């Protein structure tokens, strides 16, 4: 039993983090740009004047994102100093050699797909954030009702809920749980919010 628990603990803590950082590292290495060095060295020059985006840059697969060129093929945001046809073309040729001969329509279509996916991603993140905040309030309300210490959420309830979710649902669902803010400070702030809301309601009804 103890061995089994140890195993679970190891899987739940280290492997997730390790996998995550591995994925991030892999992503970073795959999209490293050969002209990165060139861009950093020239960034000091461009401090005084910002390069402007041109509509024609979509021909190299780039759109404007807050004055920085964003590659629609790999989602990489290059520095403003790379906002020049030669540098954008170099990124396209070296990183996306399979798409270097594509026409403008291909990139326009790609851009629309990217915008669409960004929109749906934002929607998902927004709903997850809203749900996490709601869960955090409900959680805090129960702790206040039970008169428990505020630290109980982070120290024991959260790990328990995580275990139950992993067993009863799946790892994917459990990954959403850490987004629920349940630290000591947050719980006491939530309880304070709830109490002042109740007080305000009561006063307005008098
Ligand atoms: Zn790219």
TrEMBL record:
Domain BED-type residue range list: 51-103
Tree of life domain: Eukaryota
Region (Disordered): 16-50
One term of GO molecular function: zinc ion binding
Keywords, comma-separated and alphabetical: Metal-binding, Zinc, Zinc-finger
Protein name as it appears in the record: Zinc finger BED domain-containing protein 5
Organism: Eumeta variegata
């Amino acid at each position: 039993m103890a061995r089994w628990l140890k195993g679970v603990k190891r899987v739940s803590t280290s492997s997730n983090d390790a996998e995550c950082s591995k994925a991030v590292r892999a992503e970073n290495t795959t999209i490293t740009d050969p002209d990165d060095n060139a861009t950093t060295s020239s960034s000091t020059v461009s401090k005084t004047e910002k390069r402007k985006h041109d509509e024609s840059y979509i021909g190299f697969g780039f759109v404007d994102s807050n004055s920085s060129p964003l590659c629609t093929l790999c989602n990489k945001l290059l520095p403003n100093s790379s906002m020049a046809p030669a540098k954008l073309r170099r990124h396209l040729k070296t990183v996306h050699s399979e798409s270097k001969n594509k026409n403008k329509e291909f990139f326009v279509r790609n851009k629309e797909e990217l915008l669409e996916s960004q929109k749906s991603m934002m929607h998902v993140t927004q709903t997850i954030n809203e749900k996490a905040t709601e869960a955090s309030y409900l959680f805090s309300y129960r702790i206040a009702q039970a008169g428990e210490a505020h630290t109980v959420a982070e120290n024991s309830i959260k790990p328990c809920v995580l275990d139950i979710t992993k067993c009863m649902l799946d790892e994917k669902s459990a990954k959403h749980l850490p987004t629920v803010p349940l630290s000591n400070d947050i719980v006491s702030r939530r309880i304070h919010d709830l109490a002042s809301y109740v007080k305000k309601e009561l006063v307005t009804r008098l």
